[in-house]
Design a protein that fits this description.
The chain has 159 residues and is mostly beta strands. The protein has 1 helix and 12 strands, in the order ββββββββββαββ. The strands form 3 sheets. It has a 5-stranded mixed β-sheet. Strands 6-7-8-9-10 form a 5-stranded antiparallel β-sheet. The longest helix has 6 residues.
């Protein structure tokens, strides 16, 4: 990867083929192969995710149990969210006190989409996007959803 080129990652929530796929990518110089998760979809399911463990052996500063989580959520049969999060637990030690306000979850990138906005409200069908600057500077994340139970097929490339 060149200095200013972001590493591409593609995550697909493919309900038609009943799987979630995360493309192969390099993480801090370590190659991660394509990861697949089979979905036993139920028409009423409105949340699915896949986890990518972060290996503390490749970098000793990564706390054990750390991971990236890519998820799809749907609310009210119309509002959808595609999200990438990082989980980094506070290190367990007999000599460290757990901070009272420590949150191990960080949102890396998120998109929200309302396929069929309610008339006469401020809702729109425009995809909203926000991201963690450090993650976005290093990774070019694309996420997509296809098939039922999603109310509409869409991709973050549409934003």
């Amino acid at each position: 990867m060149a200095n200013n080129q972001r590493e591409p990652i593609t995550v697909s929530f493919d309900f038609e083929n009943r799987e979630i796929r995360v493309s192969a990518f390099n993480l801090n110089g370590t190659y991660r192969d394509t990861i697949r998760k089979h979905l036993a979809t139920d028409p009423s399911d409105s949340m699915h995710s896949i986890e990518i463990p972060m290996n503390h052996l490749m970098d000793s500063t990564i706390p054990r149990g750390s991971k990236w989580v890519f998820s799809w959520h749907q609310w009210g049969g119309k509002d959808q969210t595609l999200k990438a999060q990082q989980y980094a637990p506070f290190p367990v030690s007999n000599h460290l006190f757990h901070p009272s306000n420590y949150d191990p979850w960080t949102t890396l990138e998120v998109w929200t989409y309302t396929a069929f906005p309610t008339k006469y409200t401020t809702q729109t069908n425009k995809i909203k996007h926000s991201f963690h600057r450090n993650f976005h500077d290093l990774y070019d994340l694309t996420m997509e959803v296809n098939g039922k139970p999603a109310v509409a097929n869409w991709s973050t490339n549409d934003s």
